[in-house]
Amino acid sequence: MPRLERIVETAVYVEDLDRAAAFYETVLGLEALVRLERLHAFDVGGCNVLLVFKRGASDETQIVPGGSIPPHDASGRIHVCFAVPAADLAAWEARLAAHGVAVEGRAEWPAGGRSLYFRDPDGHMLELMTPGVWRTY
């Protein structure tokens, strides 16, 4: 059986693209790779990309060089987890506080990893996780 290697992209769908982009750039310090009317793509390190779509803006087939992208969209709140070094977790908590972002939960996992949970402006649950949670991380 062929093997999956990693998740290259994940996406959130938001009501206000500019507000969401400001949050991901300012609070999380992500660099924009692409800025379009319907989406912004952010570098999350290596070959990991966060796509932030304007809700409803991708509900038609998109013609691209060499093919097409089928319609897609989502509603509701989702969960996205970002890997962080254990030594940086306290600095991340301070950064969130400095930007007025409330930490809604904390976890200390049996294998030694820790997590912080907070929300983006659209209510998506975001997590910062240190190594020691999964067998693979």
Automatic annotation (TrEMBL):
Family matches, as InterPro entries: Glyas_Bleomycin-R_OHBP_Dase, Glyas_Fos-R_dOase_dom, GlyoxalaseI/FosfomycinResist, VOC_core
Pfam families in the cross-refs: Glyoxalase
Top-level division of the source organism's lineage: Bacteria
Signal peptide residues on this chain, from the entry's feature table: none
Domain VOC: 6-131
Name listed for the protein in its UniProt record: Catechol 2,3-dioxygenase-like lactoylglutathione lyase family enzyme
